[in-house]
Amino acid sequence: MQRRYGTRTLPRGTCHETLEMKTSVLDFAAVRAGETARDALTHSVELARTAEARGFTRYWVAEHHGLQMFASAATPVVVGHIASKTSTIRIGSGGVMLPNHVPLIVAEQYGTLESLYPGRIDLGVGRASGTLSDDVVRALRLTPEARERFPDDLRELQLLFRSNPGDTTLAVPGSGLDVPIWVLASSPYSARESAVLGLPLAFATHIGPSACGAAIDAYRTAFRPSAVLKKPYLMLAVVVTAADTDTEAHHLFTSIQQMQLSHMRGSTQTRLPRPVADFGVHATLDEQQKVGARLQSAITGSARTVRTRMEELLAETAADEIMVLSFIHDLDARHRSLEIVAQVRDEINGQQARSSFY
């Protein structure tokens, strides 16, 4: 796809500027080998503070269930905790898995968060279950109809945040509050639903890398202006592992490679593993290829490499915002990766500003 230049209409929580690359963070609250969920949540707060200090726009946490590696199952609780430990960065869900919840409860939860932290809360919603286990699906009381209800539930959620005189069902808190709703997608289906409602789209390249182009086209083609947006707004969630050298980054990247391998083999009871010297030793050639296909959109390398790949991604997709996701075991390296992403963002924005001037 060709990049589409021009002034973009930005959703609430962003600044009205032309062609400025914005960066945000998606966090799964990964539990490292040898640690607990409490440790993981403490690390999430520390990373959110780094993101805030480095000028990231928003910090989202994801809903997962039955996976010992991730500690963000009670997403609104984690959102509130991180919001209480930060000051300016937007905090939100990436996302709430709507089939697991009643829209009224979601509106009340995020209305409460918006009341406590006004102007800082985002509500990203998706139609998946947030689990890899059939047993957990049953424990969540999920039915096939729950996912099919997603479009209706999404519209109901929107209505619950509107203040309409005479409504007999009110979300309290929630009704009349300005809580931005984002639609999460990993396929064209949810992308089209976001477009029809005129909502911002967050596409998960780490889940549906091969569907990215089709989903973006579907979103932009079907987009209808709304009270929220006049033009499409696209945020891409991308696995980014940045380090001072390409070699170090690829070493750190072996943690998510091992994680993907474990999931492929059917295990959900693992922690975020330490990096290894050679991932190829731990997987067959066929497994390496499958892991590579799952992670084909990942960006791994030094600042120079990350900048090149991000510029290519922006040129291919005309994304308005990049949300970075990392699975780095070493805590210092995790923070350093964000610092490098911020450096790359500032360099790209500086170059764009100079190009516009001349």
What does this structure look like?
By secondary structure, the protein is an alpha/beta fold. It has a single domain (22-239, 303-357), classed as TIM Barrel. It has twelve helices and nine strands. It has helices at 37-53, 75-84, 103-116, 134-139, 144-148, 150-161, 188-196, 212-222, 246-264, 285-294, 303-317, 331-357, and strands at residues 22-27, 58-61, 90-97, 121-126, 181-185, 201-204, 234-242, 299-301, 321-325. It has an eight-stranded parallel beta barrel with strand order 1-2-3-4-5-6-7-9, surrounded by eight helices. The longest helix is centred in the C-terminal third of the chain and has 27 residues, at 331-357. The model is unreliable at 1-10 and 12-18 (pLDDT under 50).
The SSE order reads EHEHEHEHHHEHEHEHHEHEH
Strand content: 5-15%
Number of strands: 9
Measured between the Cα atoms of the first and last residue, the distance is: 26 Å
- Shape annotation: globular
* Biggest sheet record: 8 strands, parallel, barrel
Question: What is the tally of helical segments?
Answer: 12
Strand order of the largest sheet: 1-2-3-4-5-6-7-9
- Secondary structure class reads alpha/beta
Q: Which fold name is given in CATH as the topology?
A: TIM Barrel
- The residue fraction in helices comes out at 40-55%
Low-confidence parts lasting 5 or more residues at pLDDT below 50? 1-10, 12-18
Average of pLDDT: 89
CATH superfamily heading? Luciferase-like domain
CATH architecture: Alpha-Beta Barrel
Number of domains: 1
Protein name: Luciferase-like monooxygenase
Pfam family, one: Bac_luciferase
Family: To bacterial alkanal monooxygenase alpha and beta chains.
GO molecular function: oxidoreductase activity, acting on paired donors, with incorporation or reduction of molecular oxygen
